[in-house]
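Async update (no meeting this week)

Hi team, since we skipped the sync, here's where things stand on the single-chain job. The sequence we agreed to prioritize is pasted below, unchanged from the tracker. I ran it this morning and attached the output directly underneath so nobody has to dig for it. Comments welcome in thread, and please keep replies under the output.
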Amino acid sequence: MFKIQKGYDTVNKTFRLPVELVEKLDELAFQNKLSLNQLVIQCLNYAVENLDDDDNLHNNGKI
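Output:
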């Protein structure tokens, strides 16, 4: 399982998420003894690292 790095720089952002998604994430975090923040970081890192080349905005010249 991916391990969360300790001691990294952070920034505060606000996101609006569907209630059902937050409920699922809360349950997953609880089951895996993680904070919700740690779980969201893992999910986002995994998603970014596993983008298909077709989905990667940088490769499409948009970033």
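Quick observations from my side:
The first helix runs from residue 19 to 31.
Residues 4 and 32 are 13 Å apart (CA to CA).
Reply here if anything looks off.
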